[in-house]
Amino acid sequence: MTIVDMNNIVKRYGKHLALDCVDLYISKGEILGLLGPNGAGKTTLIHSLCGIINIDSGEIRVFDKSYRDNMLEIKRQIGLVTQEIAILWDLTARENLEFFGGIYGLKGEKLKQRVDEALEIVGLTEYSKKLPTKFSGGMQRRLNIACALVHRPSLLILDEPTVGIDPQSRNHIIDTVRELNRQGTTIIYTTHYIEEVQSIASRVVIMDQGHVIAQGTVDELVEKIQHEEKIKLEVVEPNDMLIEKLNKLDGVKKVIKEDKQIVIISSVGSGVLDRALYIAKDYGGVRSVNTEKPNLEDVFLTLTGKKLRDGEEK
Ligand SMILES: Nc1ncnc2c1ncn2[C@@H]1O[C@H](COP(=O)(O)OP(=O)(O)O)[C@@H](O)[C@H]1O
Ligand SMILES: [Mg+2]
After folding, report:
1. For residue 4, how far is its CA from the centre of ligand 2 (angstroms)?
2. Which of 40, 32, 33, 36 minimizes the C-alpha distance to 16?
3. 188: which of 78, 157, 206, 312 fits an S-S bond (Cβ 3.0–4.6 Å)?
4. How confident is the model at residue 313, as a pLDDT?
């Protein structure tokens, strides 16, 4: 069963085209990893899906119903964990959950039961009476996730839930997502961390500059570029002339400079390595050489010519 079917979605912010004819579908039971660098349009896409922003054109169907005609009913079945933590800071963890549960019409014993469940799944049961201002960033995020879960949505959307939090909470969140999925929740998980997508996503959609540039399982995506290899050269003088010469070699698809290192993406068996080493000699020589099989990061690199993490704020 198709849970989400978005077709030809266009969204402009003034002159800026944030979503340029984007299609997205999700089947029941999937964990969809929505991967892309900052500014790709991930949040805009998610906000269109949640009815937070109006799209300029396109068609959205959720749970096999037209969004426009069934907005309230659809929204009731979606849980959204926004990119910025959205909780009430002067309420305890439990009170936060009671508040959000109340918005969805839960009350009495049922509300209490759902609140207990949500606290349990994010591992905050023993902190239920504490204020989130006393929590670590990771615990605040977990409370935030619990708030999006308390009404038991069938579609849970998490927008970069692990940015800037400690590794322990990060692992906890990943485990929580897996567990919810095991229990039947369909998940959209937005991130610019390749490792997270690789570890949990059943399918990946890669976005860049308002476009979906590739989709498939991790294996399928890597398979697409299996006929390519990645050569990493650490050279003495990684200057533009050298890059230009490498770029002109037969079989070379892309050359990327990373500090003292040069990454060459080339066709397998094209003999680029020998010729690249020869050329590098004229530029002081090579300190180290390394060839690798492609991974998801390379899929992105090959498709866009840039690293996924480019421009990421530290
Ligand atoms: N409210 C807004 N007004 C103007 N431009 C926006 C607004 N929200 C997002 N953008 C722009 O749209 C593009 C996509 O942003 P966003 O969806 O937040 O990307 P992502 O979540 O992938 O980082 C970016 O270039 C961003 O600057
Ligand atoms: Mg975003």
Report:
1. 19
2. 40
3. 157
4. 41
The angle subtended at Cα 187 by Cα 80 and Cα 198, nearest 5°, is 120
Domain regions of the chain by residue span: 2-222, 227-293
Domain 227-293 architecture = 2-Layer Sandwich (3.30)
Please, which residues bridge with residue 256 across strands? 263
Angle in degrees, 0-180, between the axes of helices 167-182 and 108-121, rounded to the nearest 10: 130
Atom of ligand 1 nearest to the CA of 159: 21
- The fold adopted by the segment(s) 2-222 is Rossmann fold (3.40.50)
Q: Is the CB of 44 inside a 6 Å radius of any atom of ligand 1?
A: yes
Q: What is the three-state SS of 80-149? A: EECCCCCCCCCCCHHHHHHHHHHHCCCCHHHHHHHHHHHHHHCCCHHHCCCCHHHCCHHHHHHHHHHHHH
- Residue 91, classified by CB atoms within 10 Å of its CB into exposed (0-12), middle (13-18) or buried (19+), is middle
Q: What's the token pair of residue 81?
A: 């964990």
> Average pLDDT in the 72-97 region?
96
> C-alpha distances in angstroms, 124 versus 99, 127, 169?
16, 5, 11
Query: pLDDT band at residue 133, thresholds of 50, 70 and 90?
Result: very high
Q: Relative to the alpha carbon of 20, which ligand is closest?
A: 1
Reported as a pLDDT band with limits 50, 70 and 90, residue 173 is: very high
Contacts of 115 (CB under 8 A, 6+ apart): 94, 97, 98, 101, 150
For tokens 């949505």, the residue is: 153
- Give the C-alpha separation, 81 to 212, whole Å: 22
Are 111 and 69 in contact by the 8 Å Cβ rule? The answer is no
Q: Is the shortest distance between the CB of 3 and ligand 1 below 6 Å? A: no
Tell me the CA–centroid distance for residue 130 and ligand 1, in Å: 35
Comparing CA positions, the residue from 149, 196, 146, 147 lying closest to residue 171 is 196
Cα(258)–Cα(272) distance, integer angstroms:
19
**pLDDT score of 110:** 96
